[in-house]
Amino acid sequence: MQIRDIIKLFKAHELRQAWLVALAADGIQILLFPFFAEGALSPVDPLVDLAAAALLTRLLGWHWAFLPTLFAEMVPGLDLFPTWTAAVFYVTWRRARTQIEILPPDSPAPPRVLNS
Fold first, then answer.
1. Cα–Cα distance between 24 and 28 in angstroms, integer?
2. pTM above the 0.85 mark?
């Protein structure tokens, strides 16, 4: 994997938006720590996490990295770690490693070439 492959990934508008959503969700939870210190007991914290999960799934499609991230965010204290950013980093890294073109979830899939 070369640096130009990673740069190509960031040309996708959806990926740039996903990074902004992840950074914003983690930033809200880390910078506004006193309001979210109770973790899952806070009335606003689950709303931020559910919104982040929904937006990231809409932008990047479903990925298994989002499920443990959502559960980790419900544990008091773990929401001080940028878990959404880490999940988007993992999804980005996996897609760059497998060189899958990032398409929006509602766009048609490119045609597949079958090896004979």
1. 6
2. no
The secondary structure element, H or E, covering residue 89 is helix 83-98
Alpha-carbon span 63 to 84, nearest angstrom: 12
Burial string for 59-75 (b: 16+ CB within 10 Å, else e) reads bbeebebbeebbebbee
pLDDT of residue 116: 44
Cβ-based neighbours of 14, under 8 Å, separated by 6 or more: 59, 60, 102, 104
Encode pLDDT of 78-105 as tens digits: 777 899 999 999 998 887 777 655 566 6
Residue 52 neighbours by CB distance under 10 Å: 26
Contact assessment for residue 56 and residue 90, using Cβ atoms and an 8 Å cutoff: no
Secondary-structure percent of the chain, ordered helix, strand, coil, rounded to 5: 65, 0, 35
